[in-house]
């Protein structure tokens, strides 16, 4: 099974929930980094880490396949 087949195959329910959590973390991190006010350095660092963690969680959950339905 190649990467494209994995990406379009059905995803288990747990990983769909985790994918949504990852997308939420990514959007929160993006909001922290692009805030129109000056935030402390620690907050912007946390925003960067949230973007990385959310992106990794989303990518892993997207390519997880439910073998019973595939």
Highlighted features:
70 residues, mainly alpha, 3 helices, elongated, membrane, DUF2892 domain-containing protein, transmembrane helix, transmembrane
Question: What's the arrangement of secondary structure elements?
Answer:
Blueprint: H1 3-8, H2 13-33, H3 41-62
Task: Give the H and E element order.
Answer: HHH
Net shape: elongated
Q: Helix share of residues? A: over 70%
The averaged pLDDT comes out at: 90
Low-confidence runs (pLDDT<50, min 5 residues)? none
- Could you say how many structural domains there are in total? 1
Number of strands: 0
Radius of gyration from the CA trace?
A: 15 Å
What is the tally of helical segments? 3
Distance between the termini: 10 Å
Largest sheet: none
Give the DSSP E fraction (strand runs of 2 or more residues): under 5%
Main structural class: mainly alpha
Short description:
Keywords: Membrane, Transmembrane, Transmembrane helix. With 70 residues, this protein is mainly α. The protein is 70% helix and 0% strand.
Give a verbal description of the structure.
There is one protein chain. This protein has 70 residues and is an all-alpha fold. The chain has one domain. Helix content is 70%, strand content 0%. It contains 3 helices and no strands. The protein has helices spanning 3-8, 13-33, 41-62. Helix 2 (13-33) packs antiparallel against helix 3. The radius of gyration is 15 Å and the shape is elongated. The mean pLDDT is 90.
């Amino acid at each position: 099974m190649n990467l494209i087949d994995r990406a379009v195959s059905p995803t288990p329910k747990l990983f769909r929930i985790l994918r949504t959590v990852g997308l939420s973390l990514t959007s929160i991190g993006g909001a922290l980094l692009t805030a129109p006010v000056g935030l402390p350095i620690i907050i912007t660092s946390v925003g960067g880490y949230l973007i990385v963690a959310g992106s990794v969680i989303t990518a892993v959950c997207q390519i997880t396949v439910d073998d019973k339905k595939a």
